[in-house]
Amino acid sequence: MSGRDRETPYAGLSPDVVLDAIAAAGLAPDGRLLALNSYENRVYQVGLDGGAFVVVKFYRPARWSDAAIGEEHAFALELAEAELPVVAPLVFAGRTLLAHAGFRYAIYPRRGGRAPSLESAAHLEWMGRLIARIHAVGARRPFLHRGALDRATLVAAPTRAVLASPLLPASLADAYRAASARLDAAIAARYAAVGAPRTLRLHGDCHPGNVLWTDAGPHFVDLDDARMGPAVQDLWMLAADAAAMDALLEGYAQFRDFDPAELALVPALRAMRQLHYAGWIAARWADPAFPAAFPFAAEARWWEQHVIDLDEAAQALA
């Protein structure tokens, strides 16, 4: 893949290619096609003859190896086999990772739902119970190809992407470099103070947008960021405050022990996500979807505030 193709990897993903990919899997698309909200990958809802729908995800080239995607799929299928409400890919002739016209993709059943109520202690306890059961499965064996939620992935790599990006005003480069270094040191110190946590296979990106609620309860979608990491990573983004975390952990404790020392990692995990977010935008800016979705990143004032935020996060951790 050329450099230009890496920057705009979806330029050739036309509606006809999407529908042809569905047909190549042996399904019969009826022409109904709806692009769903996704930036890292491209995701579409596709109608089938007879009125049913599937969801197809085209993986961003060069992000994950085939082996890493295979681990994502195997984890989802393992969770589904354990009767957990996780949307797993469909299997075609023994395969979940398919290829067509130079794109890798997977097809999923469509599962609807609404956003969870994070103000409801009962809903939070319910999610806590399910996350504990997901973690019980995740602790059975490690990922070998998907990496970990660590400083190399969430601090060093995005920092390099920002410093190499024209989005960062030249006048802020030194301030950003210093702020990110201070934050990295504070994160390292927090991890050292807590001690190395137990790690397991995680959902990895368990925010409210990846939980859909129905009358039957919640189900979890999008394991694209599944990695090795501490259990608290799948809890903190659902907890708006201490009371919410208490409710999550009350449910969690019904199925799995939780090390309360991991709660001290939450500010570090939040800071790592904050830093990674800016690096992700910078690294993907040549993809036409990103300037349209994140226009604020082209403004110097956003980067000025980002540097301030990094300094404040470092001070809070210290």
Any key phrases for this structure?
318 residues, Transferase(Phosphotransferase), domain 1, globular, alpha+beta, 2 domains, two-stranded antiparallel sheet, Phosphorylase Kinase, domain 1, 9 strands
A few lines on this structure:
Helices cover 44% and strands 13% of the residues. With 318 residues, it is α+β, with helices and mostly antiparallel strands.
How is the topology of this model organized?
Elements: H1 3-7, H2 15-24, E1 29-35, E2 42-48, E3 53-58, H3 66-81, E4 98-100, E5 103-109, H4 121-138, H5 151-163, H6 173-194, E6 200-201, E7 211-214, E8 217-220, E9 228-229, H7 233-236, H8 242-252, H9 266-283, H10 289-293, H11 300-317
Antiparallel strand pairs: 1-2, 2-3, 3-5, 4-5, 6-9, 7-8
Helix pairs in contact: 4-8, 5-6, 5-9, 6-9, 6-11, 9-11
Tally of distinct domains: 2
Q: What is the CATH level 1 assignment of the largest domain? A: Mainly Alpha
Silhouette: globular
Q: Number of DSSP helices?
A: 11
Note the beta-strand portion. 5-15%
CATH architecture verdict of the largest domain: Orthogonal Bundle
Question: Helical residue percent?
Answer: 40-55%
Topology, number of strands? 9
Q: Uncertain regions: pLDDT < 50 for 5+ in a row?
A: none
User: Looking at CATH, which topology of the largest domain would you report?
Assistant: Transferase(Phosphotransferase), domain 1
Strands of the largest sheet, in order across it? 1-2-3-5-4
Order of helices and strands: HHEEEHEEHHHEEEEHHHHH
- Distance separating the two termini: 43 Å
Class computed from helices, strands and strand pairing: alpha+beta
Instruction: Please outline the major beta sheet.
Output: 5 strands, antiparallel
* Quaternary class: single chain
